[in-house]
Automatic annotation (TrEMBL):
Lineage: Eukaryota, Metazoa, Ecdysozoa, Arthropoda, Chelicerata
Cited InterPro entries: BTB/POZ_dom (IPR000210), SKP1/BTB/POZ_sf (IPR011333)
BTB domain sequence ranges: 168-235
PROSITE patterns linked to this entry: BTB (PS50097)
Pfam family membership, one: BTB
Protein name in the entry: TD and POZ domain-containing protein 5
Domain of life: Eukaryota
Coiled-coil regions, chain positions: none
Amino acid sequence: MASCMDANAIAWITTKLHRIRWKIENFSKVAFNTKLDGPDFYLTSTCMVGLAFKKNEHDIFVYVCNKSNTEIRIQRELFFFSCNEEILHEDKDAHIFTLEKGHYINIMDRVQNRETFDILSNDALIIDLSFTMIVEIIKELHQSQNVTDPGKKLLGDFNMMKENSVNSNVCLQIGKELIPAHWSVLSSQSLYFKKMFESGMKERLQNSVILTDLSLGTAKKLIQFLYTADFVQGDDIRELFHLYSAADKYEVLELRTSCIHRIMSKATADNVWQILLFANRHDDRDFEWQAMHFIKSHSDVVFQTDGFKKFQASKPFIANMFLFSFLKKN
């Protein structure tokens, strides 16, 4: 007989990242020790928070107020920028802040060189905040050798659906390769396929979709993600570029975000210029910002690479602007 033990477990679950930018105009005219209310926004459909700002002659404070009915835990990354995107301050530690209902809490570390904030370009300060919400779930576990993790089981079931063509109701064609799939999965994970499913297009009526702009490898990774929220990653950053482009076209937003994260994890002083150029071509501001932040953080080496020379040849104005900013700083 299998032994069984009851226990309580605490699971910490992080929800998706939320990013907000708040521009404070006429910064020098903000009175000392006067709280300036900023925007309100939702972390989830039931969890609203609000921002506030205050300064004095020695320091600067950014507050978050919990405006929902339950306690909230968050992590944050905070950046101060000037109007020309110069980083003036950053906080990126893994500290977890507990927000009680109706309470304001300061999420800033102490700023260095407080006096630099009194001579801001255009007299404006940009506060760039990224929040991750932390949810604590306490539940009773019955530990047994016969119990299966339901999350893993669900992913396994979806993977079996992908591999089993018996119940498929649409066929994806890449070249001569035919991949069976399910409209319900495609349309629930991709806005592109959802529109196709609801529109009565010939692909929907014929239950056949020809993908002419994807390689077979990229298409398989895209479909794998639609079913399992994951994909097998190779070492070639160009494969991630192709997959990002597919996620962008077929409007699989979570895959696009995942590609950005994996691409930036492979960023080097040489290839970051290629990454920046790619993000610029896709007009992805958040992706561009991450690449530019990497460049600024590694400015002592990135301008000496062959990658920068190639970028300078294709985007001379932007490249020289970066170089001028670096030389000015040094």
